[in-house]
Structure formats: C-alpha cells, structure tokens
Amino acid sequence: MAVSDSKEFSKPIRKGIVDRGWLADAVSVHESDLLLDFAWGMQLPDNALLNATVHIETLGEVQIPVSLHDFDKLKTVSGELSYGRGCSIPLENSLRLAKEIKLPKVHFSTHESYDIWSIVGCHLRLPVDVIDVEIKLTKLLLYEAGGHYKEIVCDPKHCGTFGTVILQLPVEGGHEGGGSKVEYNGRRKVIETHQRSDERFYLLSFYNCCEHSVEPVAKGSILRLVFNLIWKNPKTEIPHNFPLFLHGLNEIQEVLKHWIPNSTIKRNLMDDSPQIPLKIELDDSANNCLRHEEEPHLSLYSEKTLMEDVFFFVLEEQYGEKNVPFHRLRGNDFILAQLLLNCPFIDVHIATVTHKRFRMLDKTKSNDGANSVAKKDRLITVSNWKDSENISTDYNIKLNPDHQCVGPIRNLLTLDKPDRLEVIFLGDEKCENQIEEQHFFRRVLVIWPKEESFRISCSFGLNSLLDRMEISLNLALPESIDDVRQNVTRDLKNLIALGSADPRMLWVRAGMEKGELTLRLLRMCIRLEAREEGLALLKLLGLDFSEDQKGIGNNSENFEGIQNEQVALAISKFQCLFGWRDIAELIKRMISPHRITQQFIPTVYLLKYLLEVNCAEEAKEVGNLIASSFANVHQHLDTCVSCYIQLGNAERLQTLFSDIFRAPAIDFETNLSKKNLLEILISSPVIWELATSSELGKSTLSVLAMYQLILLRDESTSPLKVRRQNTTPGEAFLPELLSCLTFIGRLESNSYPVDSKYMSTVQPLLDQLEIQQLLDIMVDLLNSNEQPPTIGILRFISKVVVSRMKANQVPDMLRRESILEAIQYLNRSEDKQLLRSFLEQVSSYEITGSWDNKFKYELFDALIYSSGIWDGLDSTSKLIVLDTCTTLVSVWIVCICRLLDSSSPGKGEVSNSQIFECVKLFFLAEKNRFGMMTDNGTVLQHLLSKLSIPQLMQLVLDLYLSDSKSQTNIKQFPNCFVWYRDLCKLFFGRDFVSVVKKDEVENVFRCLLWMEDDQLWELFSTKVSMLAKKSCILTFMTCILQSVEIQQGLVDSPSAFAAFVRIAEGWVERSKSWKEPKFTWKQPNAVVNGHPELEEFSRSPLKSMSQYFTTVKEARLFADSLLEESKHGFNVTVTPIGKKSVHCSVTKNRSYHINVYQNILKAYRSFKEKFDKFLELWQNLNDRILSNVVIKPSVGTGSSLDDDVLIFSPAKRCRQEIDVVDLSV
C-alpha cells in the first residue's frame, strides 16, 4: 500500500457543540424531580396480530382467539405456578392462583408487519442507540375465575432482566376483573384488560423494580404470554432504580446525540419459532471505534479541535492517594460512572489531578500558604489514567476547568486538607528549618466521543496505544490469535494512514525518543508480516514533511528517515523478510544528500547489519549511496572506516587516508581537523575490535597510530602553532598524545621495549613536556580501563621522568597523587633500580623544594600509611624514605627556630600546627625504623628550648590526642616515647597552671594517666597544690569532681593517687586562711574609663566624694557620663554654689554594693560547697583503696609525701569499679 493512496483523507465536519449545563442536569437527575412512566398498557387495534399463532408441544397450534375448548386443553398440559431462582418452588394459592406453561413447551409467532415491540420501546423510552435489548418469551399464564397473581420482584443483577412485557391473548367469552396493578415508589397504576377481551389483544409493559399483581378474575378466563426484557450489553451492574437510570441515559443521549455514529436496528426473537423483529443492538463500529475497515476521513485534528469534545466531571467523594477503579467508586460518583459507562458512544476514563503545596514549618508564625490554585495554573495536568476496563493508560492531556468541567467544580482547585504530608529538612534533621510538602489528590471522570478515541490516542497517548497493540499480541490465546492479528493490523494501517495525512504532527506529538515510534511500527510490521503497511511506512520515512509557516524545509525535524541504530536493524530485518527489490528505491530516498549529513551513523549501521545477514551486494549498494551522497566523510569517520574494513576494500582505505592525512597543512585549522579525525579513529572501539579479527584491521591501526604521532610531532615544531595562545609547552597536544600512547600500548600489549618506530617519534614530544605532565600521562595510563596494561609505554615514560629529574628540571611542587601512583606502579613493575632512582630524586626535590613543609609531610605520611605501597617496598627503598623524613625534620626545625628568633612580629609567628606536624613527621620516621634505637630525637631539643609555655602545652595535648588511641602509639617505640616524656617534663616543670584553660584541664589529667610516670605526676601535683587563687583551684577541682573516668584513674594508679593526695593536702593547708567575705565599700577591681579619680574612689572605702565645676553645663555633662557608668553604682547630685561654682556630689549606691557583696558571698559559699565535696571524694577514694587492696609496703615506686601519709603500691590487687556519686555543681 503506497502512502499516496490515502492522500484524499480530510477532516470530518463537526456536528454540534455540547451544552455543559444540560449534560450536568442529565447526569444529576433526582427522583423527586421526575414523573417517570414506569408502566404502560394498551388495547391493540383490530388489525393487529391477525395471523399470530401459539404452538404448544403435544397439543399443536392453538388458534387465536382461543376457544374455551382449547383453553381446557391448555389446562391439561399446564403446571402449578412456581417462583424462585430457576422457578422451581411452588407458590401458595394465597399469593398466586394460576397455571403456567413454560418454555420450551410454548412458542409464539406472527407474520404481521405490525411492530408491537417498537411500541414497547417507545412507551418505556428505551434508548435504542445506547442499550442492546433482547425480548425473550418465558411462559404462558392461565387464569380462571378466582385466579390472581402477585409478582415477586426479580433481582436484575442476577437475572439480567430489567422489565416485563405481557401480551394478553383474546379468549372466547372474555373475562371480568383480572386488572393488572403496578406500584413504584408509592405510585400506582391499574391497567384494565377486560373490555373486548374476547377479540382484542392487550399489550402491557413495566420495569422489574415495580411490584406487579393481578386482581382476582371475577368471571371468564385469561391467557397471557410473558416476555422478559433483557439488557445484553451492560457495562456495569443493572441499577435497582432502573427507570431513573434510563431517564439519565436518554438525557445523555439527547445532549450528546452528535457523538452517536449511524446505527442500525436488528430485532430477533430468541426462540425456535419463526422470527419477528425483536432484538435491538448496535453495529460493531459503534462499540469499538478502533476497528475501522476503511475511514474516508482519517486525519489528525489539531489539539485545540480535539479538546473541544473532551469534558470532565469532578467526583464528589475523597479517595486519597491510591488508585481507585470504577467499581470502587461510592455514592453519587458510582451512579455517575454507571451512566457514562453504559453509553457505548462515550469513552470514559477515571484520572487523578495532583496538586503540591510547600509550607514552611515555623512555630513563631502561621504560614499556611495559598488555599487554592493560582489563576495562572488553571490549566491542570491529569495523571494515573484508567479506562473503562480499569486498564492503566497514559494521556498527555491538560484540562481547562473553565471550559471543560461539567457540573460543580467542587474542591478541584481548593487546597484545604492534604492527602499526604512529607517533611523536608533544610540541612540535617536537627535543623529547625523544615518545609512541609503537601499533596492533594482529586479524582475526575474524563469523557470524549468514542469515535474520536483513536485520534485522541494518537495525539495525546500514542505510547499507550502502541503498548496496547503490542500487549494484545503478546497475550493473545492460540484460539484468538488470528482475530487479534487482524485487529492490530487494522490499527497499524490506520496509524500509518494518519501519519501520511500529517506526518510532522504525528512524530512531534509522539513524545518519544528519536526513532522510537518508527522502530515500534517497523517491529509490528515484521511481527505481523504486514508487507503493505511496512512499505507504506518506509515510503513515509523517505518523504520530506511539508514546510510550515516559517518555511522550515531541510532541518532534522522535517523528515524522519533512519534516526538510530535500532531503526537500521529493523529495516534490515524487514528486507530479509520481503526482499531488497521492493525497498531499494525507498532506501535510496532516505540516503539523500541533505539527510546523510545528519543521519550518517545510523545509515552506516544499516550497511553493517546488511553485512551481518550476508547481504553483501545490498550492503555495497548502500555503501555506494553513502559515498555519492556524502563526499566529506570526516564526521563519523570511524564507522565509515570500519565498514570499509569489513568489505575488505583496502584500496578505498588507502585512498581515503592519503587524501586526508598526507595533504600538506596549509593553515592551523586544516592540521587541527586532521588530528581530530585521527583521534576519533584511534579511540574507536569498533576499529579496535576489527584489529583482533582481520589483517587489514591490524595494518590500518598501525598506520593510524603513526599518522597521529607524525601529526603531533610536526605540529609541535611547525610555525602554525603560534596560533595557539595561553598554553604551556606540550599542553596543546597532551590529550592527543595520551590517546595515541594508550592506543600504541594496546597494540604492543606487554612487549618491552616498545617498537622503536613509535618511540623515535614519541621522544621529541615527551621532551617538550614538563615532569608533572609526564607523571600525569603515567597516571592516566595506569587508571585507564584498557587491558592488558601498557607496561612498555609506562617503563619508557618512567625512565624519561627519572632522567629529567636527575637533570634538575623540577621547578615546582609535583602533585602528591601523581608521585604516589608512580611509586605504586614502579613497585609493581619489579624494576627495583628504577624505583630507587625515582625515590631518590623525589626525596632530593622534597628536601630542597621551596613549597610548604606541610605538603612534604602529607606526601610521606600518605606514602608510609598506604599499605598498598609501603608494604611492597624493599628495605633499601624504605630507608631512603625514612632518612628523607629525618632530614626534612631537621630542615623544618631550622625554619621554625629562625621564625621564633625573628624580631619582626609578623615573621615570628609560628602556628601550633606547624610545630605539631614537624614532630609528627619525626614520629612517622621513627615508628617505621624496624625497631632500631637512634638518637634522632636530639634534633628536636633545640626546638623545645624555643617554645613558650602555651606552645609546649598545645604540643603536649595535640600529640596525646592524636597518638593515644592509635594502634601504633608512641609507647611502643622507645625513641618516640622517651622524647615525648622529656617534652612533658619540660612543660610540667614550668609554671603551666596559669595557661591551662577550663576545657583543657581534663585532657591534661588524661595525658598524665596515659603516661603513667611518677615524675610527671610529682611535677604536676607540686605546681597544682601550691595554687593560691580560688578560681584556679576551682578549675582543677571541678574537673576531678565531674569526671568519673579521672576518679577511676586515680584509684587505679598509685602514683596518680599520691599526686591527688598531695594536691588535696596543699589545698587543705591553704583553706585555713579562707574566710567568708564581709561587706565593704571597696571594689578592688573597679575600672572607670576616663575618670581616674573616680576609679580610685571606687577602690577606696570612702562612701562619697565631691567635684567642683565652674558651670552647670560642665557639671551636668560629668553627671551624665557617670550615670552611663551606672554599673559602678554611683548616685550623682549637682548643686550650684554662687554664680561661678557648681558642686557635684558622688555617692556610692548602697543597694548596688550590697548586691555585689551578695554575689561574692554566693560564689564563695558555692566554692566552699564544692571543696567540701572534694574532701568527701578524697575520703571516699582513700577508703576504697584501703578496703579493696592487700596492703604491702611500697617497693621502689612508692614515696612518702608527708610524715602522716604513707602511699603503698598495690600488689596484684583486683581492679574495683568506683561507685559513682553525682558530684556535679
């Protein structure tokens, strides 16, 4: 089928506009507002059913009117009236008194053209274009005098019936009484059928939700045929209040009558007798608009036109976040869905409208955010679509409440109570700044004409449409596969026809990746073996879309063509299925000159896939088309070269390379273009794969590598390179060189040395690089994912690096990571001599380098603590590193001391981190010297003599904190431990108490406990026990009282406890001079800025003083300045004395001084309270030691502190935990 065959498709004429108000009324009718006609009856005219007959098994045909003789015969074959499911339960005579003859014993037929069934449908207002109704004969009822009947209401959900039709036959002699009474919701109708009942037919009908009864027959006999009205195509359960439901269907049908396609009426009697028109149904086109044999006007509407017939209803109930199928709707929502689902000309979907609102969670103020959707956001997005079969679909449709909402908009746009809340923390979870993300979910029912479903699916849900087509093929049962394939083929044909009518609109609306729509359609053509549809699609791919209003003609969006590799593969498979001859001309259109520049890669992949399926001739034809359409093959050259290699066309390759790479470089741009092309080729995985499978591939790669090196070498020496600015030597070609070396390394594999033909060309390039750049190349080669590793290249570059370093060509600091990775590689290379040479050169440059010593420390720290490097070094290499560290420490100490000795304040500033890192470097070397004792620590003694007490303290604590918890702490290394102990002795031997801050006291105690040295404890306790200031005592005392860990340490260590006792005794001795403060007017520490006489007054015991001024203004300024200094508690009085003297009296404020005294007294009492607790703790600790220790005289380490106190060292005593008492202040 050619695409041009469908070019006559045009847009259908729209028939009407939907009245949304009328539609809203139609779906929301209420029973109280209607006078429904629930029952109906009439006497048929004389000429009606003249030839009707009733046939009874065993009796034969019964003539109408029925004679009394025949009536008696009917009685002989009739049975008792029964009821219930299956009608097998006899009924009491009090409810029913009648006889019945049931199917299949009774048959009724007529040959008249009088359509009594259309009359029934008209009077019951059955929407024949909406429901499919079957009228089925069920039984013949016989009534005699006294007979009566009461209907048991039928359950429509079980029986499928919604109404009853009764045809009363004329009987000889007629009857009296026997009227039919029908009741519905409190309303009653009585239909009398006795007049002329001996010669006329009566027709009655009513709905099954009504109560029906027959009044007693006073005289005569009655024969009635009973028919059921059965709804054959309900989409939901039959509603109990069926009349009201039918009224709604009729109203919807009237409002949306222009949505209903042309229908036909077919009526059949569902029995074995001759048929009369009874069955009302719709043709297949109305029930499934996707199944068109041929549509004369298939085309895409504009989105605006299609959306004019899309409407939605906002559901009344709230359903939260979870998806809700139709059968789980509640209340009026369920009734609405029933109405819409049972209209076969309407496509109904349930969908979700989601709103988000963000609210700051701020406790100080209300911040609820907007309570409704902003007007600019009135165009709402709908998601979570489900069709009438509860199958998930996806439509990219935005609804406009102002023009498409039917009925009340309810809470669609209001944001009151969220359905889901999420709290977002700005920072960590402890941060007070939080945002509450509120989610609001609103359910809507969306409708549109079913005859437009296919176009809407193509325009807004093409992906879902294709999914349904593919899934139907995947899930088709063997017995239905033929029908499924036929239906999918029809949809495929229509979809391609729609694309031919407006291809740009279809592909742009698809919302898929480039080529995805084409690929899926091609795969379906292959699976369905749909030759005509596939050829039509290929022809469509070769067409240029029509120009739009902006005149777009040849850009990439103006044609589809071969968009990607998968489309190329699908075309090759289609060719295998149907042959090349039919598609050759179509392929040629896809490889036109203006397309090949934009779709070169997928076009070449088509050539490749044709080769893979042994279509060599077809591949060559495609190759010729490519060559003729695209003379400049520079872009995507790798794919083109790989195809030539597969074709074995060495001559074309030689010509191609000669034309491109051997042409002289006229300017910078030309040379750059050549290099870019070579870079593409040597980095192509496709080219590399061919090198392992063909000789031509291998030779091609070797030629390409040499071309790249030659171009790089020539460029580096060519005057054209002056065009490159702001680049260092070698920086311009470094990426290309790295790529080329990687490629050569892969070619050479593990061979060493590397082929000299490469190295002779590489060497001049490497000579132009700095050492850091050479190291970068090594690191990049090491970190590349190429396998096997390029050992030959790496060794060659390593030797170049070492030789350059020996020539003193390291002006700046080398990157630490590069050095470490180079060492790691050389260590693995097993070339120990090269490794040692490299380490020696690195060490030399680190010692003499001018960069910060911190970076030097970090380098060797990372080197030694890297198990992957250090553990692999031999002892000689390790000694090189360790000796370098020691030398660096000496150089570093000289620099620090020079700064400390400098007279310039700016130059003399040395940070604690510098001192700390210098010592850490010393420890680093000593810890790894294989356990050898050295005297290297003496180099640090000169540094310690230069440090101040605060610097000494910081160094002591920093080293303790960094090393005490380490698995390899300094206690395990005598060189380090001895030096650190000497450092601590130097610090504790000085007046350290004044520089220790509150937050440092605990670490001082921990350090002493960790060191476990008697001399250090003695030095420490001597200084602390002599403290005179209560504030200093309080600092140390509070730390001991609050730290359970320190208390435990004092108990566990005899030397620590001895120091504790010494401190306690010293403080007790000083406490004898402590007295409770008394009230005084003195403020010894008072400071009055700008008034020295007042400062002296504040510190004296005087209560008042006087000042004299010559003017009132001066006195007031003085008084105001004092009032500003109200914190000193002054009262100021200004009194003029004569005309030239003003007296200013300053008096101390008593209440202020009392308050000061009370604070001093409170602080003293608090201190005394803590001191008492300290003494209790002393006693407690002493009691525990005496009660839990086997006392033995001290040997060696014990020492007598006092004539009255003797401290004993414990001998194998069990460690006891101290009972913790809350001593916090």
Note the main sheet.
8 strands, mixed
Overall average residue pLDDT: 75
- Unreliable stretches covering 5 or more consecutive residues: 1-14, 84-89, 263-300, 547-554, 720-726, 1189-1225
Distance between the termini: 97 Å
Global outline: flat
Number of helices: 46
CATH-derived architecture of the domain at 32-84 and 92-232 = Sandwich
**CATH topological fold name of the domain at 32-84 and 92-232:** Jelly Rolls
Care to count the β-strands? Answer: 29
Beta-strand share of residues? 5-15%
CATH class of the domain at 32-84 and 92-232: Mainly Beta
Cα gyration radius (Å): 52 Å
Structural class estimated from helices and strands: alpha+beta
What fraction, in percent, of the residue positions are helical? 40-55%
Describe it.
The chain has a domain at 32-84 and 92-232: Sandwich (Jelly Rolls). Helices cover 47% and strands 13% of the residues. The protein is built from 46 helices and 29 strands. Strands 19, 20, 21, 22, 23, 24, 25 and 26 form an 8-stranded mixed sheet that branches. α14 (516-528) runs antiparallel to α15 and α28 (771-783) packs across α30. The protein starts with 19 loop residues before the first helix and ends in a 37-residue tail after the last helix.
